[in-house]
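P.,

For your records, the input lines for the assembly:
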Amino acid sequence: MTDLAAPLPTARPAGPSALKIGAWLAAGLAILPLLAIVWLALTRPSATAMPLSLILRYGLTTAALGSLTAVAVTVLGTSAAWLVVMYRFPGRSLFSWALALPLAAPAFALAYGYADLLDVAGPIRTALRASFGSDFWPMEIRSLPGAAFVLSMAFYPYVYLTARSAFISQSVCALEASRTLGSTPWETFTRVALPLARPAIIAGTALALMEVFADYGAVSFLGVQTLTTGVVRAWSVYGAPGSAARLSLLLLAVAAVLLWLERSGRQGQSFGANSARWRPLEPEPLQGWAAWGASLFCLSLISFGLLIPAGWLAYRGLSAAPEADRLIQAAITSFGLAGTGALVTVALAAVIAFGAPQNHRIKRLASLGYATPGAVMAVGLLAPASLIWHGAGSGGSQTVALALGLLVLAYAARLMASALGPIEAGLARVTPSMDRAARTLGETETGALRRVHVPIAKGALWTAALLVFVDVLKELPATLILRPFNFDTLAVLADRYASDERLAQAAWPTLLIVLTASLPIIILSRKIMQSRPGE
Amino acid sequence: MTTALTLDHVRKLYGAKAAVDGVSLTLEAGKITCLLGPSGCGKSTLLRLIAGLEPLDGGTVTTDHILSGPRFHAPPEQRDIGFVFQDYALFPHMSVEDNVAFGLKRLNPAERQQRALKQLQRVHLADRAKAFPQALSGGEQQRIALARALAREPALVLLDEPFSGLDAHLKAGVRDATLEALREAGTAALIVTHDAEEALMMADHLALMDQGKILQTGSPENCYQHPVSLAAARLLGPVNAVDVTIKGEMVTSGLGRLNAAGLADGQAVALIRPEAIKVNVEQTGGLSAVVRSSRFAGADRWITLQVEGHEGLELQAKMPSALCPSVGRQVSIDLDPNACTFVPA
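Structure tokens returned:
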């Protein structure tokens, strides 16, 4: 025997480990607000109920907005991905990551920019009137189609990213086989590449739609009444948590359908990657007008999705001095919340990833939170929140801390699944036998975690933290509902300025968000671009 | 002889199916035991049960104290058992040296490094101490995995298909290096493999396993020459199985009269290794046969012989290519009586 031998083994019945229990608790945290919603909806009859006709109108508007956006993001995202993967044209390597950049801007940033730019008194229509004597601008931005345009430009990157990775994971063999069987490039795209990528495209569209239905800032500014604005109104205008909860139930049903779509889409992705002999695609050079057309298409997506609205906001913001005190205070609040949110969310997601790597039920619970709009999440946490406020009076520092805790919980419940994705991908590098090797080399379960899993997944943990950080920074409705009184984040401050029609002031916090989020988004999208199937 | 580990009626169920079904086995200190069986026979599961990576459903695993038993499970980190994984499972974020030193955390840094270097020298890879696993060849990775498992000086080391990931031309070299390192460490070793030649060449003791059960244990020679069943015989290589009748301790069949001392009258199966069939091109006595087909296999040829006067009785034999008779040739064959085993039908 050896000097390294442990003392005599102690008897220990094999049971669920502490980590596994932790994983269930973390997933439970994610669905706690959803259970609260069901309970609220069933037990709180509202005295000042929202009229049914109003709810019906919210529903129809939401459905129309969703349909228009779904078509637009699918077409735009898929075309951009196909161009970037299959062809060589000026600026292609820049576009391949820059096309994801609009993710840095919250949708309300685009709404502010376009609403101001295309306003009757805005520069474009003024110029049109001056030149032609009449204002024949075809589209009112403060309308349903206007909102669909804004949200499509904000959310097409979700489809672009999933479609791109699906196209890249397709082996050139399948496409070459199609060509040798007599198909033209276009037929190859429609008969082989597109069907192979369809599950991924559906998954991307489902993700974009989750964001559309969760959006509050853009649609409320553009005056489009959706179910989500309805939830916020039921709470703030009607003061009826029961009504808010019942509207939330509708949104939850939609979320469940989207989640199912996204999940079945992701499962289908495997048939792109399981080809044993994967060979990278060799992009085909485009010539002449086709090459410039492709560049122009990608450039205009990035311009409409980020450069034009953000640029106009910057121009407007510079025309007015910011209210520096409020802005700085809000920035500190935002960064603090985003940092705390990222820390807590990644910790909870890591517990799930480490503690229940094979348990799909836990992950499904966690992803239910992701599909849930922030406003709904907040309503679900209102019951405990109001207990705190009533219990402790208002304004005490303890109350504020508790309320902030609830807010962080709402972020964690909503974003746990998006942190789980990269962490799991990182942990895929830890094979089951590495874990077993650590155990047979004398490490306990937690020791193996500390010395093997965490160091290997370190990059992935940072990636997850960045993702959550950006999302919290952009978050509006949950913060609006759950924040303690007079506690403004950058997004809340922007919303307050904008609803007072002080757009030059609103531009400042909005641009701070865009600039701060840009760096992580650039890092993340460049990182995604470098990854290849099997890595 | 010192016993390093004892398995007593070990059982492991997956659902209703027993992956390991009442296995009893003794591993001796300083000896190499090979566990040979087809894929899916439960041999890798058995390794994981011994290492404590999975709880068992029945039986006991004991060293000088009990490791696994009814309602009892010592965790793997407390077992003093090393494990070399089929995919080597080197930690990609650590250098070779840190990988080998992974299990030595109870030592101080200087001792740790010294011990790791000693292990690396043992597998002749001291010069790669600072490299990362990704930069090593498959054979080198295998040796690092072995050094890592041996660094804690465990009483027993388990090796799961240690050479299956290697190219054929590398196997022999890595196998010799592994044997040398194991002998030098003086630890008991249990090597799981599905390669009969590998098992026969490496083992002090051989255990044959199929469908969750141990078929036979013993020295490689004994298992090869005296298989207890057709299944056990086939695990170790090609074998001719001929139905025979035994009467008065003698075999009467197409094989001529053979001694079957100690066997009861009745039906039996004669197991004859191909090399036990001596083919005589000059026809003198013995059994007469015709060469039906002949396949080239390097130094040797495989030939199929039709025994004359016995419709349907064909034997596979193996003989040097240079001496091989042509197809259609009539030959006489002799059987080496020591290389024939009779098992119940």
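Two observations worth noting. The radius of gyration of chain A is 25 Å. The first helix of chain A runs from residue 18 to 43.

Regards
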